[in-house]
Amino acid sequence: MTAQIRNIREMTDSREMIESKPHALVSGFVYILLAVIAVAATWAYFGEIDDYFKAIGTVRPSDQIVAVRNSIAGRVESVFLEEGMRVSKGAILFTLETTTLRLEETRLTEQRQHTAQRLDNLGLLKRSITNGRSYFDRNNPNQADHYNIYCKYMTDRLVGLEQTQNLTNDIDYQLKENIISIRAIGEKSAAIAQEKANYELLKRSLEARENLFADVRGVFYGRFIDYIYKESLLENSIERLQQSHARLKAVIGNEMSTEKGLREAGRLVEMAEAELLKHQSDSQSTAIILQRSIKLREDEHIAALELYDEGMLSEKQLADAALLQWAQEDLARHGTNSALGQQALQKSLQYYNSELDSMRRLHEIGGNESQELKQLDIQLASARVELLKFKNDYLIGIDSTIEQNRLSLMELAATLEKAQAAVDAYQKRAETVTTTVLDKLRFDTLVSIYEQESAYQERMRDIDDKLKAVNLTMSEATVVAPTDGTVNIIADIAPGEVLNNSVEVATIVPDTDTEFKIVFDVSNKDISGVKPGQV
To answer: How far apart are the first and last CA of the chain?
Structure first.
């Protein structure tokens, strides 16, 4: 051991403790403790501890135990199994009744035979229709229905032939009618075209006021002449109105002189009327005086006659009374003279009145000249408008007729095209109508046969499926041992008892020399300590 020299400054308590050597017993104790820990860990790793728990289990052979179940429900017919009986694979254990299933099988078999017969008959019917001859046996009652169908088809074919012939005749008739219509349309089109050309030529003739028609005996030449004649009449009417208009204007110049004469004639008439009234008044006054004198003389004469009769009046006095006759004669003469004077005055008055009426008529004529002139102006304008309207209406009528002819030609062309198309269609239809009708009948019948075949084939498949199901069910009605072994009955069954589907009746333990196995039912609290492969 060598001595170490250190600086005094480096010497501290902690450093002294670190650098000081431990006691020998402490080192030994540490080594012993580590050895104990290592031994304990090694023992804990490699050592085994038995852990026990209780569980319920079943001892089974190593081969699978087979359960015996019925696959279908039904009534038990017979039972052949017993508890502990040893059976071989395929041995009958029990059977179920199959009366209903056998009846169903018989019914399905009959349906299948009937369907197969129908399919065969449909095949014969198809061949007969395709080849046009019967393949049926008339003496076979199973083929009677389809043979009748074939006979009906042949009858329908004959009816179709007759209908086809009638249709062909109708088509021929329609074809002939359309051909006639085409000819008529052509003739009508030619006539309308000629009429259109004539109207156009008439229009040009009217515009040129010259006859352009070669045939002077034609209808359109007559229309041209009629138009010229009516036009000349209207023009002459206008010319006459113009002449009347000129004359009225000349008459208007004499209107002032006519008014002056009218005033003079009126003055003379007034004077004549005044003289006539004065003469009538004087005559009436004189006549009244004379009448009164005559009345007085009549009274005196009557009185004188009375006195003369009584002898109180002499003849001289009676003669004086006769002066009454003279007075009456004076009155008569005065009346005659007055009447003659009045007649003369009335004639003068009539003359002046006639002159006045003449002057008034002349004045009225002169007063109405302006009104008549206006009327003539209106009539002249109306005549000119009528002439213009006549020309325009005539030309418009021609243009309208030309346009109608053009539209008619277009319509006839379209109708002709349709008629020609109808003729082509009828010709094609006449060529194919017979084969079309018969082919349609044949194809429709064959399609119906194919549809029936498909339906019967589908029905056959359905019947076969049902037969397979019935046969499978009947095979499952007999329960046999699936393997060799010993029977362990779980549910006692007896004949006549009804079993539901999939009832476990018994189990069969296979006959083997292998080891057995135990199946434990471990509780939940112990399951955590169990591991796969643990002994």
So the answer is: 65
